[in-house]
Amino acid sequence: MGARVRKLVSAVVVLGVVAGGAAWWLTRPDPWPAAHWDGLGAPDVANGEQLFWAGGCTSCHAAAKSEGDAKLVLSGGLPLKSPFGTFHVPNISPDETAGIGGWTLADFGNAMTRGVGKQGEHLYPSFPYGSYARLTSKDINDLWGFLKTLPKSANVAPPHDLPFPFNIRLSLGGWKLLFFTDKPRVTVDTSDPKIARGQYLVEGPGHCGECHTPRNALGGFEAAEWLAGAPNPEGEGRIPDITPGSKTIGSWSESDIANYLETGFTPEFDSAGGSMVEVQQNMAKLPASDREAIAAYLKAVPAK
Question: Model's pTM, two decimal places?
């Protein structure tokens, strides 16, 4: 091999290493600095419970068809089918082995708001950290405090069942680079405290866009279609448009929406159905002011 060829090969290798290093740097797991979770003090467990219901934690993490106090046993295991394979919801009870009882506040907060697991790995966005990223540090602390009061479960959830290449977690760094953000999803009048609160609840803990917004082929939100309806992730029918242009709720008033979230009944005397039943039951546990704030935000988002 001539000197010129050796130099060319060496240059290509160096460029490859540099490019690989740059790609890793841009897509590496990115948890908060440890100091981010300092000084939060004792959690407000009552506020944590409200966030728990706003986030619908039982809908995914409790055993199927749980009722009453059994809903508070967050044993995991529920299969979530998707175009990328089947995800299995983890145990998030305070069990030290099967659950997250051995986690710290920082571990929990980084999972919730940065999509980074306890071992520093990328988490799959089947866990809606893309929405939870908007939660304040105080609310994370309060929610963590409440979760630690719940019953333990020793159930070990199965691993995800994902085909290649979706089983390669490193690829999630590229997904985050393209789609992960903690910025507002739409522009609304946040000078109105009620609308601002509604935006926080809907775009953050409520994670309403996870079902009501369509996604592209890579699983990222189609940003221009925020809350405009999407295929049902469970495979049957569609999740409705809930913007002011909706044929479903476009004609409803703020009080109609707030009443629906409290009672499950529409202005037409119909009732919530499908997966919305559990969502409505969770929302009914929130303060009336929060349901009113959600309604105000839904009337303020751009119509589709």
Answer: 0.89
